[in-house]
Structures are given as structure tokens and as C-alpha cells.
Amino acid sequence: MYLNKSKQRAFRILAAPLLAGLVPVLLLAGCGGSGAKQNAAPAEAPYHITMAFLGAPMDDDAKVFAAINELTLRELNMTFEAAPLSFGDFVSTLNLMLSGGDDLDILPVYAPLAPGYINANQIANLGDYIYEYGKDILRLVGEDIATSGSVNGFIFGVPSQKESASLSGIVMRKDIVDALGIDVNAIHTLDDLTPIFAKVKANYPDIDCLAAKNAVDRWENYDILTDRFGVLMDNGQSTTVVNWYETGDYKTKVNRVREWYKAGYIKLDAATSTDVETNLVMAGSLFAYFQPIKPGFLIQANAQCGREMVYAYIGTDDGKTLNNLNSNNVNFFNWGIAQNSKDKVKAMQFLNFAYSSPEFMNLLNWGIEGEHYVFVDDSKKVIDYPAGINAANAKYGRNLGWHFPNQYIAHIWNGLPADIWEQYKAFNDSALKSKAFGFLYDPSSVANELAALAGVQAEYVTALETGSVSDTEKTLKEFNDKLYAAGLQKVIDTKQAQLDAWWASR
Fold first, then answer.
1. Which SS3 state, helix, strand or coil, does residue 483 take?
2. Residue 324 and residue 248: Cα distance in Å, rounded?
3. The pLDDT of residue 3 is above 80
4. How far apart are CA 12 and CA 8, in angstroms?
5. In DSSP terms, which residues pair with 433 in a beta bridge?
6. Number of CB atoms found within 10 A of residue 361's CB
7. How far apart are CA 273 and CA 339, in angstroms?
8. Beta strands in 97-146 (DSSP E)
9. Would you place residue 269 in the very low, low, confident or very high pLDDT band (cuts 50, 70, 90)?
10. Other beta carbons less than 10 A from residue 127's beta carbon
11. Residue 267's pLDDT band (boundaries 50, 70, 90)?
12. Between 472-485 and 248-262, two packed helices, what is the crossing angle to 10 degrees?
């Protein structure tokens, strides 16, 4: 059964619809022949749950979703419908579903869009349901994290269980590091990289040391407060919202990058290039790139770059490396309930199940054991493709644990450490929480200003942060003057007022 209230229904899949109608009959048939049992009250009809998530349709979707349907019928008396959303147009598709009255219970909520959904009355406040019907979520995620996706006290969604902290670093080709005798353990600051880049350029003149796309914004030693138009410095320990682009820290970073650019260490077309950094490393034309580092990172980096890589953590200019946690990196994609849901209690019960059922998580992310994956260890924790199957011909295997509710209870893909989930938890637990953790501001009153600011940002930031401007001081002043002319101070004042009110209410 396909629903057709919007164009999105073209690819939505309802798994095993006939089971829903058969359940009451089967339950009654199993009661035997006694008159008392035959006169028993009929079983409650299954609730039909619809879950939207990111990811392109796959060949075996119908088979996997049918298996999930059997699971939810057995455990929850709910039928299951999946609505995969393309990464490219999920925003517009969700808007159609939410505004068009489509049947929808569970949806991914991209945090910057949450205030708009709230103001349009398109999503439910989970605060009305989570404490009674989401007890497993509170237990597994922790109440402070589970309820951190909140705007003005409205809980718009529960964060996915993932590595959420931010610890920045530089990733480098190991063959060059070894050949030049570079001491990776001696790298602590951006300035430590200058003599290394000089050495690489002298010995490998045809290789760019850095693509520089993230040479400045990877170092978030501040709480970005959603959009960087007004931030909290000192790793979110400050209580005063300031203009990041006007700080001495930002000025130091863009001046350093300019020096690197003039010395020939940075890719000359860095400001306009659309090349993926890992592809450039694989092609042999790039030495290093900046990247947030997480447990198990090198396995991913080696695969993406097609060669062995090494990394070093980079701290602030005094060498202090901090693992930061703020509302934005925790609440990247959350799981919410649509106002369209016909039964929000049952939707919350399903969401609670999704966070606590390993069987559900493994089916949704990896598919069916024996067909889409097999165990490769005796403990039955680590999985890989079955014989003859690989990434190119696999009919199912979404590998979206970071997006789905709770990857910490799911299988681990071969190559990652067997204790990767414990490493992720420890990584998050070790982070310094911003003083604004749990706060997300409502930008609705400054929407026009934000649109204008985004235009100014696009005009200046890439050029400044790749070292591509001839006069950093002059360009930086022009940039900030235009930001204030576009309404930056109003945005900063709005954030500060909302933040002060949030602190006062705690």
C-alpha cells in the first residue's frame, strides 16, 4: 500500500501490509475452541508507524522492511512503513510531508531547522511524552543528552548515539612523514606545522602541503551557537556572545594561513576548488588536510585516501588540546515526532523501542543476517559482507549508524575496534561541556538578518580562510563592517537575551 499525498510517496515502502489485517484473526484463531475464549474481546488493531530517515532506496528494501514489520508487530503490535529520504532533497521532501498532512510519525530533525518546525506547529514537544514513554531512551542516552535538543523548553528530538565531541587534528601521508623524519608527537599547534610544510615543499615541490578548505573553521575553540553569527569563546566557558570574525583568535588564524599561502604551501586554487581532500591525497597531489579526530578515525582515513595516514591533535596556540561538547555537535540530527502522527504516545513508544532494540537497529542499518552480513568473530559482535558480496554489489547495508537512533547497541563493521562503542562513549564523556550545553536559540525574529549575513559570509570567508586575499587586514575589516551593516549586532543581542533567559530558568 503506497500513500500518494505528495511526490515523496513515489519511493516510500510499506512492508508486509497484509500482516496488519491478519493479526487480529490469527490471535483469535489461536484461542482454541472453548466458548469462553471465543467470546473474548477482540485484539487491538495494530498501529501503523511511519518512519522517515535519510538514505537512498536500496534493492532489498522491501525484504528488510518486511522483516522489521514482523519485529514491530511481534514486539509492539505496530506495522512499519519506511520513508527513505534522499540526502540531496530531504529538506524539501520533509516540508512537503509535514505541510501536506502526510501520514508521518518519526522524522529526522536537522537542528538548525527545528525552530521553523516548532513555529509552524509541525513537530511535537517530546517533553510531553519522553518521561513516561521514553524511559529506555533516558536510561541509555542519559537525561541531559536526551533532552538537550530543546528550543525555549520545547524538546524537538532525541540525539542519535554517536561520537559527538570535537577534537581537531591534521591528517598526513605516513610515507612522507616517515621519509622526512617528522616527529608527529611534537605537533601541538598550528605554528608547529610551518617548518613541516617548509620541509615537505622543499622535498616534494609538486605536492601541495594543504588544501586549506578547513584551515580555520576546524578549530572550534568556541561554541558556535548554531550558526557562528555570535559565539561563546573559551571553549564555550564564556557567558558573553561575541563576533567570532572580530576576535584576535580569528585574525591570528587567517593571517597564519595567508603566510602559508604566500610560501606556496597551500593549493593555489583552494578558494575555488571543489576537489575532495581525500581524493587529492589518493591521487598523490596533497600531503595533509585538517579533520576532526575521533576513535577509530584512521581506519576510515586510510580507506578514503587509499594509503596509510597518520594524524596529530592540534590545540590552541598555547598547545592546549580540548575535547569540546556543545548543543550543536550533539544535536546534529535528532529524532522527533511529527504533529501529523495519529497517536503520539505510540510514536514515542516506537522511538523508545528504536533506541533499545538491537534487532531493530541491526535490521535497519545492516539488513538480514546471512544475506546482507555475516559474523566474523566468535562473540558475534563484528560483521562483514558474506562471501561474494562487496560494497559494489550489496543489495542492502546502509552504514548510517551515526544517523540512526542508537548504534551503540548494534553490530560493529569489520575493521573497527571491537570496543569502538565504548571508545565513543569515553570520548564524549571526556569532553568539556559548553556552559550553553542544552541551549539552541530561536532565530525566527532575525531571519532577514541571517539571510543577509549568510550572503556576506559567502563573499568573504572562503577567501580569507584559504589565504587567497592579498591584504588580510583590509579584507577582514571590510568583512566585519559588512556583517554589522547586515544586522550582526541584532543577531548577537538576540542570542544573548535568549541565552540569559535560558540560564535564569535553570
1. helix
2. 20
3. no
4. 7
5. 325
6. 22
7. 42
8. 106-110
9. confident
10. 13
11. confident
12. 140
Furthest-apart CA pair in the chain: how many Å? 92
Are 264 and 201 in contact by the 8 Å Cβ rule? The answer is yes
Given the C-alpha cell 548504534, which residue does it identify? 407
33 pLDDT band (50/70/90 cuts)? very low
Whether residue 148 contacts residue 137, with contact meaning beta carbons closer than 8 Å, is answered with no
Classify residue 324 by its DSSP letter.
E
| 41 CB neighbour count, 10 Å cutoff | 5
What residues have CB less than 8 Å from 84, skipping those under 6 apart?
11, 12, 13, 52, 53, 54, 55, 56, 57, 61
| Per-residue model confidence (pLDDT) at position 68 | 98
Q: Is the pLDDT of residue 161 over 60?
A: yes
pLDDT in tens, 334-374: 999 999 999 999 999 999 999 999 999 999 999 999 999 99
Contacts 24+ apart (CB under 8 A), 177-183: 177/310, 179/203
pLDDT band at 321 (very low <50, low <70, confident <90, very high): low
Q: Report the range of poorest mean pLDDT among 76-85, 138-147, 278-287, 312-321.
A: 312-321
What pTM was computed for the model?
A: 0.85
Cell of 417: 575496534
Residue 5 pLDDT level (bands cut at 50, 70, 90): very low
For residue 300, what is its C-alpha cell?
Answer: 576510515
- Cα–Cα distance measured from residue 103 to residue 78, given in angstroms and rounded to the nearest whole number: 14
Strands (DSSP E) contained in 367-423 are 374-375, 382-384, 412-413
Radius of gyration of the chain (CA): 25
According to CATH, the topology of domain 7-162+330-357 is: D-Maltodextrin-Binding Protein; domain 2 (3.40.190)
What is the distance in angstroms between the CA of the first residue and the CA of the last residue of the chain? 47
Give the span between the Cα atoms of 506 and 503, in whole angstroms: 5
E strands present in 365-475: 374-375, 382-384, 412-413, 432-433
Domain boundaries of the chain, sorted by first residue: 7-162+330-357, 363-433
Cell of 24: 487480529
**How much of the chain, in percent, has pLDDT values that exceed 70?**
90
